[in-house]
């Protein structure tokens, strides 16, 4: 049978019809239907999803569930959980769920139960991080290693940074991190190198080189730079005590000069952007907080894995979120999505989701290689509230329509109560979390403004059309467990989107062209610097800019 595209399915066409009906309705009216609102609220393991402010009704949801069936969503989820090679262009399983599986679970990839392998590495991390934290593993001069620099980029950086930033202010996690620092070095920009080592002493610093392939140009250059930083200060033999690695490529780790005993493995069935729960995140985070805290983070992710696998579509948080994203992108034609956590601790969540979402779903062909006649993926961006309100919310309220994810937390990590004030800082923050979705949905009409005696020439400027969709996720708190839940919700949501669109969400060929062109430029720069040869092989524009760059003393 020749491959088909989901847009040819009758269920897709049905939704095309439904969106025209929905466009004639205003969210103000949709929100007045309490039964509709009730049906658009689900709860699982302390997390509430309210999607009543989506430009959709019960009929839309029914049709989206039918679309999911037409796209064989359940079968695709099962294939993922069963370790089939659903990443067909790289001929790999997609098993990040195995990274947080219970010790006695059985998950196969290529006929092998991978769970014992996962737990073997977890045990090794537990043991190593405990030795470093307790001071039984010391540096070359006998001092305990209290600071860690994790060197890595993309999926080997953004997820761990998000989790670290979220846990930093969690009182339980912070207690275990006392006297320790975790820093990240991602960018090859020498400024990032300077930032990462400023104030640190090589004698008390452990460098963790994190790279799935161990070939990423930026990471390898940064790793060489920090290797030199350590060996210049402490001698070459100090590397054995001050540098460890996380990679799937243990051969290259050894060639780099890191003792294979100090390497923490993961596997090609873990995509880079889905690797936070592997040693990529678990090692640096366990060094900072201790493994027992990070185990709770893994438990939270596993809770969502179980929910995603076993819950019917209408109660399944990642499935609902994924279907609504498809609805917004493919039927409403909204190109972007704003991720708006009302939590400073989640300030690195949107940057992480940018990669997970845009590298996964920014594709132009189906999984069978057929050019798609519809757009996939959304442009993700975001900032914590209320900061974002004082930045880009103007556009969201009166300019372009951008579906918003509002993420709120019931219990603050750090509540503050000012004497004489009843509303706490957290209440103030959350007042905005509750208000913004309604401001977007209801807007403000010219009639309302007139009744408030607003000057007539200002009425067009002060009118809010409303009818702008959002959804709200309310978490009970922001413990390590909840952070794990949030991560897994978004990972699975993004997979659902890709499964419906019929694309491969687990490869990333689109990042390769730029990398290979950069390597040609690098070669030319080297040649010119060594032999003074003029730049050649590029177009006029690049040649001119490169020559100007070389004229200055930038080396
Ligand atoms: O350039 C994109 C990418 O390949 C990501 O997919 C990946 O997360 C990142 O580079 C880093 O790769 P590695 O972990 O192999 O260094």
Automatic annotation (TrEMBL):
Keywords in alphabetical order = Cytoplasm, Gluconeogenesis, Glycolysis, Isomerase
**Recorded catalytic activity of this chain's protein:** alpha-D-glucose 6-phosphate = beta-D-fructose 6-phosphate
The question of whether Isomerase is a record keyword is answered with yes
UniProt cross-references to PROSITE patterns, sorted A to Z: P_GLUCOSE_ISOMERASE_1, P_GLUCOSE_ISOMERASE_2, P_GLUCOSE_ISOMERASE_3
Name one molecular function that GO assigns to this entry.
glucose-6-phosphate isomerase activity
| Pfam families the UniProt entry points to | PGI (PF00342)
Please list every transmembrane segment annotated in the UniProt record, as residue ranges: none
**GO cellular component terms given for this protein:** cytosol
Q: What is its EC number?
A: 5.3.1.9
Top-level taxonomic group: Eukaryota
Q: Where in the cell is it found?
A: Cytoplasm
Question: Where is it mainly found?
Answer: cytoplasm
- EC supergroup of this enzyme: isomerase
Q: What's any GO biological process attached to this entry?
A: glycolytic process
Q: Which family does it belong to?
A: Belongs to the GPI family.
Q: Which HAMAP family does UniProt cross-reference here?
A: G6P_isomerase
**Name by which UniProt lists this protein:** Glucose-6-phosphate isomerase
């Amino acid at each position: 049978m020749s491959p088909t595209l989901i847009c040819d399915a009758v269920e897709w066409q049905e939704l095309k019809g439904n969106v025209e009906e929905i466009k004639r309705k205003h969210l103000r009216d949709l929100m007045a239907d309490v039964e509709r609102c009730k049906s658009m609220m689900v709860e699982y393991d302390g997390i509430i999803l309210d999607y009543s402010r989506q430009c959709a009704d019960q009929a839309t949801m029914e049709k989206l569930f039918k679309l999911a069936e037409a796209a064989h969503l359940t079968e695709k989820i099962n294939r993922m959980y069963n370790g089939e090679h659903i990443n067909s262009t790289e001929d790999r399983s997609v098993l990040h769920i195995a990274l947080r599986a219970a010790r006695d679970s059985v998950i196969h990839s290529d006929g092998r139960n991978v769970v014992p392998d996962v737990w073997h590495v977890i045990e090794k991390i537990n043991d190593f991080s405990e030795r470093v934290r307790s001071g039984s593993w010391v540096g070359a001069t006998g001092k305990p290693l209290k600071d860690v620099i994790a060197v890595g980029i993309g999926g080997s950086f953004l997820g761990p940074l998000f989790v670290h930033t979220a846990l930093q202010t969690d009182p339980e996690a912070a207690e275990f991190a006392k006297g320790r620092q975790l820093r990240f070095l991602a960018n090859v920009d020498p400024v990032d190198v300077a930032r990462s080592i400023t104030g640190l002493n090589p004698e008390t610093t452990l460098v963790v080189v994190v790279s799935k392939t161990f070939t990423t140009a930026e990471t390898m250059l940064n790793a060489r730079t920090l290797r030199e930083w350590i060996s210049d200060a402490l001698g070459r033999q100090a590397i054995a005590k001050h540098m460890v690695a996380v990679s799937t490529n243990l051969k290259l780790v050894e060639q780099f000069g890191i003792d294979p005993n100090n390497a923490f493995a993961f596997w090609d069935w873990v995509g880079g952007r889905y690797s936070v729960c592997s040693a990529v995140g678990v090692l640096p985070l366990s060094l900072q907080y201790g493994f027992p805290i990070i185990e709770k983070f893994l438990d939270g992710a596993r809770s969502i894995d179980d929910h995603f696998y076993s819950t019917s579509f209408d109660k399944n948080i990642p499935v609902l979120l994924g279907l609504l994203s498809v609805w917004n992108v493919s039927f409403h034609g909204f190109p972007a999505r704003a991720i708006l956590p009302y939590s400073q601790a989640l300030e690195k969540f949107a940057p992480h989701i940018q990669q997970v979402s845009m590298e996964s779903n920014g594709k132009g062909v189906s999984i069978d290689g057929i050019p798609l006649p519809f757009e996939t993926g959304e442009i993700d961006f975001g900032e914590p509230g209320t900061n974002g309100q004082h930045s880009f919310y103007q556009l969201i309220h009166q300019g372009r329509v951008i579906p918003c994810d509002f993420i709120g937390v019931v219990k603050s990590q750090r509540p503050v109560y000012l004497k004489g004030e009843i509303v706490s800082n957290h209440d103030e923050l959350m007042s905005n979390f509750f208000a913004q979705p309604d401001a977007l949905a209801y807007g403000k009409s010219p009639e309302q403004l007139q009744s408030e005696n607003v000057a007539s020439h200002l009425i067009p400027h002060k009118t809010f059309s409303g009818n702008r969709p959002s959804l709200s996720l309310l978490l009970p708190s922001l413990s390590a467990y909840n952070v794990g839940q949030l991560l897994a919700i978004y990972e699975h949501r993004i997979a659902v989107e890709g499964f419906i669109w019929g694309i491969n969400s687990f490869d990333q060929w689109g990042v390769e062209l730029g990398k290979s062109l950069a390597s040609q430029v690098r070669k030319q720069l080297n040649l010119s610097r060594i032999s003074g040869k003029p730049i050649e092989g590029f177009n006029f524009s690049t040649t001119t800019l490169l020559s100007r760059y070389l004229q200055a003393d930038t080396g």
